[in-house]
């Protein structure tokens, strides 16, 4: 499976063709332009990181899915910590 096909498969499941928009098919390098969708950019970069042209299509899809599952778990852990973090004054905005 070519990386462009892997990107296309993920793009089918993502709204607005954003994963593909973060992928530059001309030179095979993820776009760094700010298009307003950090998650789509992350997905494109993550697929690039796990891509291995030596794997069969089935194995490549499995590896990509596993990588995104792991990222999802890590994001859920971060969300849990954010929800559990006590706030001293809920009316005060947090500073950057």
List its traits.
96 residues, mainly alpha, two-stranded antiparallel sheet, 2 strands, globular
Secondary structure blueprint with pairings:
Layout: H1 3-13, H2 18-21, E1 23-24, E2 29-30, H3 38-50, H4 57-84
Antiparallel strand pairs: 1-2
Major sheet details: 2 strands, antiparallel
Number of helices: 4
The shape is globular
Note poorly predicted spans: none
Which class best fits the helix and strand makeup? mainly alpha
The fraction of residues in strands falls at: under 5%
Helix content: 55-70%
Euclidean distance between termini CA atoms:
42 Å
Strand order of the largest sheet: 1-2
- How many extended strands? 2
- From the alpha carbons, calculate the radius of gyration and give it in angstroms: 17 Å
What is the ordering of alpha helices and beta strands? HHEEHH
Q: Taking all residues together, what is the mean pLDDT?
A: 87
How would you portray this structure in words?
There is one protein chain. With 96 residues, the protein is mainly alpha-helical. It is 58% helix and 4% strand. The protein contains four helices and two strands, in the order ααββαα. The chain has helices spanning 3-13, 18-21, 38-50, 57-84, and strands at residues 23-24, 29-30. A two-stranded antiparallel ribbon has the order 1-2. Helix 1 runs antiparallel to helix 3 (38-50). The longest helix has 28 residues, at 57-84. It is globular and about 55 Å long. The protein starts with a helix and ends in a 12-residue tail after the last helix. The model has no long low-confidence stretch (mean pLDDT 87).
